[in-house]
Amino acid sequence: MAGEIEEALFLATGEREREVPMKNKREHILSLVLLLVIAFILFGCGANPATENRRDSQVAVDFSSVPDGTHRGMFTYGAFNFIVDVVAENGKVTNINVVQNRDNQQSRDAAAVLAKIIAAQSLDVDAVSGATATSRALTKAVEDALRQALKQ
Question: What Å distances lie between residue 13 and 18, 66, 69, 85, CA to CA?
Answer without folding.
Answer: 13, 77, 83, 76
